[in-house]
Structure prediction request, 351 residues.
Amino acid sequence: MSGPTIIRVNYLPHEELLLRPPAWWQGVLGAVSFGRGLQFPVAPDIPVAPVGLPELGTGHSTCEVWEVSEPLRSGHCGPIHYRAGTQVLFGRLVLEEVGSAIGDHGHSTSLQKITAQAYAQVFAALDSLGYPNLLRVWNYFAEINGTTALGERYHEFNTARRQEFLLARRVIEGQVPAACALGSAPGSPLVMYFLASTAAAHALENPRQLSAYRYPTEYGPDSPTFSRAVLATVLGGSCLYTSGTASILGHCTVHAGNAAAQTRESISNIVELVAQANRVSGAQRYSIEAMQFKAYVRHAADLEEIRAELAMLLPASCPITYLQADICRRELLVEIEAVGSGTTDISSGLG
Ligand code: 3EB
Prediction:
């Protein structure tokens, strides 16, 4: 890949990582392990997010590995394990849900409590370490579609997240991070990982969709705090991180019950975000061809249909990792996210 790519992400089979020498790990900002949670053999310095979602369609477990070409240092801040260079930080945390999941007697639920704790700790850490700008957050927690006395668990998560943005004096509209929020198996902890930077990123919205932070209250009392994508510049290189992207037009779920059509709509939304990124950059820096994808599939039985659709929509060279997860609206069968580096200008003959 050409261009000043400074922060890279790679999707590697777990077994391949076992063969990497210790020196190679020095350039790793952080890693994410999917699937069966094999013993992760890395240096203790490397933060690893244990995203236990089952991986679909391969015999192995994949790791998402973030690399930066500059000297890095690691540390812990409360429950957060982080690693950072001069401009960018990768962090992860795992919090178990304790106490009542029901939220009786008007108290907040166990999910609200750990969500609030997690975001409070993230913002405190980022402020004290000097990387105040949250670029992208990955959120995974148990039973996202479950209901409690206060409503749906995803709505509880949204209430707590939004509240902590406010308490940490962050905006809750406009320049907010890109994100995703997926459901894991009952009993799973809250697992979060994130990228943050010293410099502000540029949040993008999708003209095909209502901004999530403006969703009407039929999707929960407090709207979700995320942008559709962010454009980040790190060490002179630029990256596009989309949020989890689903079959939503305006604020409405479309193609309920049709995994193939939902897949097409999700990709149309990502194509629009790539176009927005190029518009904002004033150059053809981004392309679908240069993106790497994760597809969250609600029902493993839909995998082949979704995979066949993506084979028609995306170049064969695009890596796609398939993970089984619950998606925040019950009618959604698939959600797709993409990351990619920008080249200097694709229209000038690169790409
Ligand atoms: C949506 O567009 C689908 O709550 O962080 C996508 C990306 C979704 C991020 C989040 C939720 C989140 O509303 C769900």
Notes: The pocket of 3-(2-carboxyethyl)benzoic acid is lined by residues 139, 179-181, 212, 224, 226, 243-244, 246, 248, 328 (CB under 6 Å). Residues 1-5 have pLDDT under 50 and may be disordered. The chain has six helices and 22 strands.
